Here is the input.
Amino acid sequence: MAFQKSPGTQDILPSTVERWQYVERKAREICSRFNFREIRTPMFESTELFQRGVGETTDIVEKEMYTFTDRGDRSITLRPEGTAGVVRSYVENKLYGEPDVSKLYYIGPMFRYERQQAGRYRQFHQFGVEALGAVDPALDAEVIALGYTFYTEVGLKGVRVELNSVGTPEVRAAFRERLLAFLQPKRELLCKDCQSRMERNPLRVLDCKVDQKHFEGAPSILDSLDEECNVHFEKVKAYLNAMNIPYEINPRLVRGLDYYTHTAFEYKAEGIGAIDTVGGGGRYNGLVAEIGGPDQPGIGFGLGIERTIMLLEHQQTVTEEAGQIDVYFVGLGDAAERETVRLVYELRKAGFRAERDYLSRKMKAQMKSADRLNARYTAILGDDELERGEIALKSMVDGEQRVVPLNGLAEALANG
Ligand code: ATP
Ligand code: MG
Here is the structure.
């Protein structure tokens, strides 16, 4: 039996890879304008890093990690998200010792053992940014704006920003009591997951996708914020307003991860089946210390690239011209073969996209290939032309054909 890919993984074939490259190019280009620089961290890390950095009570750590023991008896986990590894690297490489705020981004595969559905895979890709080393709410607003700009500039319509503040650990402790008082009487109505979340991490109950109908009249964390949290939140909103970034306040938005403080946000869009979140992030002032580093604040987001691409397809956004090659070589006869090999190579070195026939097909079939590849020109080299040191160059746009000297081919192509 032939092999098949593992459940939850995907082949990105040449027919769609250009869309991926386009999205990734946009991400890099926008990061560069915002002065975020790329960081590449390993695809696997010690399991403990994720247990501490993502949080023991999260879905990720509880049931989604790809964890195994390596031959050296270490517990290793394929990264389920990007933040923990970036923060580990920031600490290990003492980036906090540099004079400026560390503004970092990453693009790459993540791994989670999840039930497969539209927009949910076991190997998926995230574009994420992390800004470490400052508590300035201008940085929160900048990170939110960066993600929003990314969606806008790849050409998506209807992406919304939802915003909340989850306060500080102290604020949350007080809110937790109020929330539990509200939830206790409804306990039996809630799903199994939420019943167990109520003990360990009740704030995350509000995040539940199935129980939303029971949360009418639930207390809002925004009413529990202290002075410091309020000031921070007000500034984030004011700066978003200053940049004209639209957002909606959602006091139920908590995000799945434990280390968030103050700002939490999500990017939402319709069009991926039952899923409406395409990315999210927040501030995590406790995380760097949590994984053993100095007490440095941070803020970031992670966006799903598959979901971005699904939305582009759903909205039928045109992302890129189909690739066009400059010249397709139609070779006729054995004697021309050696010259074709040379010319194709010379043109490629000179910067042209050149292709040729490898199947010794008839001229008609070769011309069809040139059409399929959307070639600007075909170069036809038969024995007669070769003898004269010439080649026939045919424009595929207007069908016009002219004869040029073999050593004048690059010049002829350059001049159109
Ligand atoms: P969800 O509620 O959809 O499970 P999440 O809270 O687990 O999302 P995050 O950990 O915040 O998601 O990841 C940020 C983004 O990464 C998501 O908004 C989504 O676009 C993408 N993402 C997360 N998990 C997957 C997955 N299994 N397959 C594809 N994309 C994913
Ligand atoms: Mg998830």
Summary: The chain is about 35% helix and 20% strand. Residues 101 and 133 are 5 Å apart (CA to CA). Residues 81, 112, 114, 119-121, 124, 126, 256, 275, 277-280, 302-304, 306-307 surround adenosine-5'-triphosphate (ligand 1) (CB under 6 Å). The two ends are 51 Å apart (CA to CA).
